[in-house]
Amino acid sequence: xxxxxxxxxxxxxxxxxxxxxxxxxxxxxxxxxxxxxxxxxxxxxxxxxxxxxxxxxxxxxxxxxxxxxxxxxxxxxxxxxxxxxxxxxxxxxxxxxxxxxxxxxxxxxxxxxxxxxxxxxxxxxxxxxxxxxxxxxxxxxxxxxxxxxxxxxxxxxxxxxxxxxxxxxxxxxxxxxxxxxxxxxxxxxxxxxxxxxxxxxxxxxxxxxxxxxxxxxxxxxxxxxxxxxxxxxxxxxxxxxxxxxxxxxxxxxxxxxxxxxxxxxxxxxxxxxxxxxxxxxxxxxxxxxxxxxxxxxxxxxxxxxxxxxxxxxxxxxxxxxxxxxxxxxxxxxxxxxxxxxxxxxxxxxxxxxxxxxxxxxxxxxxxxxxxxxxxxxxxxxxxxxxxxxxxxxxxxxxxxxxxxxxxxxxxxxxxxxxxxxxxxxxxxxxxxxxxxxxxxxxxxxxxxxxxxxxxxxxxxxxxxxxxxxxxxxxxxxxxxxxxxxxxxxxxxxxxxxxxxxxxxxxxxxxxxxxxxxxxxxxxxxxxxxxxxxxxxxxxxxxxxxxxxxxxxxxxxxxxxxxxxxxxxxxxxxxxxxxxxxxxxxxxxxxxxxxxxxxxxxxxxxxxxxxxxxxxxxxxxxxxxxxxx
Length: 628
What we know:
This protein is 37% helix and 17% strand.
């Protein structure tokens, strides 16, 4: 039996008084915060737009669109890259076609495609599942970004390979760029128009959005308006980022054009005399569709629910390598907020920080002072352990990253849950107090954490921030970093030491004029075991180098790495074959009187060799395919 944690029902105290949301007050508040955040985090620029009751309340730019030229940000014309906020335009296009009867939300998407998405457990994927990020695809990264505009082709990218479906459709929330790109391709096929043309004709033009485009490279008339992208403002600007599947996040847009779009959604599809959706269609799009964990925030059709302080909100976040953006629409208050910053290294979380700050200022909620339940320790013990995000690679070498990315949940002396992976504003691990059965609330905020329980065990858990698009699943024992990472560190240290000490020992013997004490067969296997250790070290070093290239820029995760990956894999094959002389070396070490050190050394070396074998297959390091 599956037990879903119910939402809390205790009556909370009334909210404290707050200043009214006005252009003057909000502008002063932002002027005091944004310059500080830009300087502290080494960010180049930011744009903030707030709409209220169908009008632009404020639109402000901060920092420089071009740091070297000291070019200021103009919220009306300066273009920012909102990343995955772009998806909401694509989902709006889907709903336009739904209301025209051209797309059925619950039909197998293969009906709209010219290639096939295979079923999982006999179940196909529907558009509704794509819109709620529940198709069950694993995470992918290859060729998502590129530096070459010629590679931008959504259809070709989709058909290169279909990611493995790791969850039954409609069950686990697992954010999917592939799924969004698939929906954008369906828009193109069903409408009979190129995707860029469709968005321009059916969304941009009715809303009067003249500084917005999905096109890559930018149209000539918009190129001079683009804010430059920076990893850090103190470093040179990076080239324009090309998103290979444009529907997943290629838009460039000004702040005030985003204001028009937010007003349209807040007014159920209407902007002035124009409509991009019928009212009932917009309302359907904004309604709750899928709960990853009932009691936490759900997913609407294409929008996250990101309620806070008792306010019903929908929105979306977006991140490229160089830009971070957030959009929040307060449906009952008729208020919308959009923020985008240029600064990839430290810009993450800035948008959510500013939006939450504005909500706490203008729509505050009284602190939840309910005492912890008596069951806190008992229920917390169920959750203690390691977890892995549902949004992870599973079938390829990027599963390497699943070891260091595991998060832990523990229970402290006060019976509070502690989650080091989730930080508070001071950078400290967040702590959670149980306020309802299997629902915990952040002791320093309003966010909640909850779990789905099945037969006394955690099936998955989530927080309010993650629940719409991502759950955290318990890590199986074989996959646990608790023993895999120590095994890796130990094995690599043994292999590296064996390689380093081999020539040192030979030089010492030669300097003293002493021949090797080993007999010829033992000497041969000893030498081959060291060559094998060298191959193991090169195998690991090759993967370190590949991961470093990917960390330097997501645009490096492309076909250009395929040759290097194959070379590293060939080295890995020979390294694993080298386990045979390692075993032979053990046999000779224990048959001959080589001393306890040589016997121990031969044993730990072969253990390190078998550890490489384990990692090679458990982390898919020797896959025949090059998809990731």
